[in-house]
Amino acid sequence: VQLQASGGGLVQAGGSLRLSCQAPRSIFSTYVTYVMAWHRQAPGKQREWVGDVTSGGGTTYADFARGQSSISRDNSKKTVYLQMNSLKVEDTAVYYCHEWGSDSWGKGTLVTVSS
After folding, report:
1. Whole-number Å distance between alpha carbons of 23 and 1
2. DSSP characters over 42-81
3. Are 8 and 69 in contact (CB under 8 A)?
4. CA-based angle 4:91:35, to the nearest 5?
5. Do 5 and 64 contact (CB within 8 A), yes or no?
6. Among the listed residues 56, 10, 60, the one whose alpha carbon sits nearest the alpha carbon of residue 38
7. What are residue 81's DSSP bridge partners?
8. Measuring CA to CA, which residue among 8, 17, 22 is closest to residue 93?
9. pLDDT tens digit string along 58-71?
């Protein structure tokens, strides 16, 4: 099952960006509940978890993301969002969406934050 992440790009430090992840119908309908996650991998670093959103709208965040990032979902659009504010240079990474139950991953979208 392929997820499609989009919305990455170049942004200045202090700016905002919203990433989107579109999932197929098989995740949003076949699975009664889902947990969609965002992860990121900075250059030369290991992939790290950013946060989750459940089909019911509950969210959890990594410590570094709490307060800066907001994850939401629109079940009717089969899309999950990652809103990132006050971006820092160290937020530069490839961001991936992932569904835990099916272990489905998107190809990632690159976010570059310039100083």
Report:
1. 8
2. -TTS--EEEEEEETTS-EEE-TTTBTTEEEEEEGGGTEEE
3. no
4. 40
5. no
6. 60
7. 20, 72
8. 8
9. 999 999 999 999 99
Q: Which of 25-34, 67-76, 86-95 is the most confident on average? A: 86-95
Q: How far is CA 3 from CA 16, 28, 53, 59, in A?
A: 23, 12, 15, 19
pLDDT at 39: 98
Distance CA 98, CA 5 (A): 10
**Cα separation of 106 and 2, whole Å?**
6
Whole-number pLDDT of residue 24: 80
Instruction: Compute the distance between CA of residue 22 and CA of residue 5 in angstroms, rounded to an integer.
Output: 6
Rounded to whole angstroms, the Cα distance separating 115 from 103 reads 35
- AA identity, residue 29: S
For the CA atoms of 83, 88, 44, 35, the dihedral, rounded to the nearest 10 degrees, stands at: -20
Q: Quick one: tokens of 25?
A: 């119908």
